[in-house]
Design brief:
Two copies of one chain form a homodimer. Chain A has 447 residues and is an alpha/beta fold. Chain A has 13 helices and 16 strands. Strand 12 of chain A pairs antiparallel with strand 12 of chain B, so a sheet runs across the interface.
Chain lengths: 447, 447
């Protein structure tokens, strides 16, 4: 047996980092690099040492969670990107305009980019990935999807030998928290949202979280990674949790389901890709049903891997910084090895998205109706004419008003294309007994 | 806005693969590379094309799951390693002797190694990682731990900026299947094992699965990755599922727990590392409790990431091949880029393992006793003298023999060091009323 030898510590040149944006995640990156620098160097066999050299912020005087020296700060992001001591640019300001300029400028300067900006990449990824290819300079974006969960690396690298059959995710912690509180504590949507804001789980403008678009942006990125073509966000079906009412959650419970804001990406046999984000009923005993609070989970099915699930904190300072730092180490390794592009590049100009009208599930439909004999028959007749099967109807009794004139009538419908349901609902809406627009939830079997 | 450009397909030189071992996983690698070759080239932006050039097997005439051409086969592994057209060697024969020679020879020939051999790396990793460093040639071993779950990449790359606080895993599918069948169907250990063998979930010699060592080897690798030093397997506490009886599973259920073969790796504040594998009681409502059948799950806590969990198929042809192919792509990328070592290297000569005597949990202890008044008092008195608190005692009534002379008496004990419990048990064993050795399960709170 040979004597055991380990590599002696290598003196490594440190890689210069420029941060643009120093809010929650930026401070987390700084703190992580401060406290765990030696560990990172150790764990990369002495090959990676990271040093923050410049930080751009809007307001230098603002108090922060991290004690970076004042001389690093500037209010001009150009100074960060053009600083010759900065090798890698970290974009953490969010938005799709200035952030676009920053990322573009960094790529043109051949400086690899690390970003957590899902909106930017989902909305303008086509342009940025093309520029990344042209400049042979990667964009790393683990922090953009599911916070600390390494789902980008999993899809791109670990599942590289798999045809991705489906991805099902709970990837907006704010919505998940609100739905959980409505479910567990019986809070109204407004009260649950307020609580989430008070706890810092929802931003003062929670629009992108509760309208589904934050989750949809992430789903678009996962779809692009999986199927290799840029997805036009305008072609993607997105609904948020604003339409969820306590009565739907109660019904879901009674029927053995839980309401979750679900992202679904799925490859069909005809080559079309289904992408949608919406609050859905999922079986209460499914593992995704137990993903609570601000946690995220992504279930993936690969043709080789079968079913897998990744679970963890989907947002927050340290978890998201954990992903950004992993990307920094990856970018630094590539740079110190003189390796070329190793980020993601779409490999097709386009692909075929499945029209939402053609996607099939079972459904829960709640009709606000006048409570008189014949209502069930009238609605059922329209559904029958439309060829849609009924697996159950329910009407909740409000104990304080057992004889109320207006009630909610719930139909559980067999699997059919969404387009077929939409047409039937149009006819049903015109019935006299139906007093308001029906509310539709998909029932996902997740098999 | 610039016109959108994507990279034109690059003509890539294909990387030559040599397979040593062509059983379940080897055939899976072959089949994956056959069916998904174009996808892999696409997903690596045309940079990786893999081609199997030589396959070593013990018996060429044996029927197989994959239709590799006969001219690729040899019975001499040296021919694979020394073949100039082979760039990367995949070791899939298992065991720690010939496999050691194969991996060593490949590294000496500066050919990167992909292996799924946990026993080899856990038992002889010190030597192999040292040789890997000396030859600047990596060993990739994603397939060695948790089948298709990319836990090696997660720990090594995605959590590179984290201090790993703990890893808790269910990482032996065979044991997990047997325990599940004992729990759900009330099968005896022997019947459940037989069923697992009939279904191909357990090998004809299931020793390493049921005695805990397969799981322990994986835990050792995760600990080495996390803390950077080679772990001596002889210092690791390992117990298998052979001692689990139906009565323990029934008790666990009644008390709100599930019995799982659990691997635990944990960093303590004094710098010592706790590593152990044993059947344990875990709370029935914990997410790990719902990991059933041949699935695996690994929960990780990082100082930045917080809690995360990775779940998927822990064994089997395609899931394990999925991991091996991901490693092949990684190795091929590095080679085609002319990059140096990028696998794992320990960065410390040694570390401090926590003695099992010093590890603390609560306990479930079942004493086979003579059923007479005073037994509880006698045992409780010894425990009191040892300073061990009791949180409950139970004695199951066997409905068919309500007045049996010999019964099992269960004590639930407060958290104390295992050494303290062991000393007390020694005294209790010598009591007249105790008819056999007590059976101990740890109760893990997993908080």
């Amino acid at each position: 047996m040979d004597p055991i030898r380990y590599p002696s510590p290598v003196s490594c040149e440190s890689i210069g980092i420029g941060l643009v944006g120093f809010g929650t995640v930026g401070s987390g990156v700084w703190n992580t690099l401060q406290s765990n620098a030696a560990l990172i160097t150790d764990r990369t066999s002495g090959k990676v040492s990271l040093s923050v050299r410049r930080i751009a912020v809007r307001d230098i005087s603002k108090p922060r969670d991290a004690d970076a020296p004042t001389e690093l700060f500037t209010t001009d992001w150009n100074e960060v990107v053009s600083d010759p001591s900065v090798d890698i640019v970290v974009e953490l300001i969010g938005g799709t305009t200035t952030a676009f300029d920053i990322v573009s400028a960094a790529l043109r300067a051949k400086k690899p980019v690390v970003t957590g900006n899902k909106a930017l990449l989902a909305e303008r990824g086509s342009e940025l990935f093309a520029l990344s290819a042209e400049m042979d300079t990667p964009i790393h974006f683990e922090a953009a999807v599911a916070g600390g969960i390494p789902i980008i690396k999993a899809v791109q690298e670990s599942l590289v030998g798999n045809r991705i059959e489906s991805i099902t995710g709970i990837i907006n912690g704010t919505s998940n928290y609100i739905l959980e509180r409505m479910t567990e504590a019986g809070l109204s949507y407004q009260d649950a949202l307020q609580e989430a804001q008070d706890l810092g789980y929802a931003e003062s403008d929670p629009t992108l979280d509760v309208n589904g678009w934050d989750a949809a942006h992430k789903a678009i990125l996962l779809a692009t990674l999986s199927y290799g073509f840029p997805v036009d966000p305008q072609q993607v079906y997105v609904r948020g949790i604003e339409m969820v009412r306590g009565i739907d959650i109660t019904f879901a419970k009674q029927l053995g389901y839980v309401v979750k804001l679900l992202c679904l990406v799925r490859a069909h046999e005809d080559g079309s890709i289904e992408i949608r984000t919406q609050p859905s009923f999922i079986p209460a005993n499914h593992i995704l049903a137990s993903v609570n609070g601000v946690f995220n989970a992504v279930a993936i099915r690969g043709d080789r891997l079968g079913d897998a699930m990744f679970y963890g904190r989907g947002a927050g300072q340290d978890p998201t910084a954990s992903s950004a730092v992993a990307d920094l180490v990856e970018a630094a390794r590539l740079q110190s090895q003189g390796s070329g592009h190793r980020g993601f590049l779409p490999y097709k100009q386009d692909g075929q998205l499945r029209s939402i009208e053609d996607t099939k599930t079972a459904y829960y439909v709640r009709f606000p109706v006048t409570d008189r004999p014949g209502v069930v028959a009238e609605i059922a007749t329209v559904l029958a004419k439309a060829g849609i099967g009924i697996s159950g109807t329910h009407s909740p009794v409000n104990p304080s008003e057992p004889d109320a004139d207006f009630v909610d009538l719930v139909f559980l419908l067999h699997t059919c294309p969404f387009g077929q349901l939409k047409d039937a609902l149009k006819s049903i809406e015109s019935l006299d007994c139906v007093t308001d627009r029906p509310v539709v939830f998909r029932i996902e079997t997740l098999t």
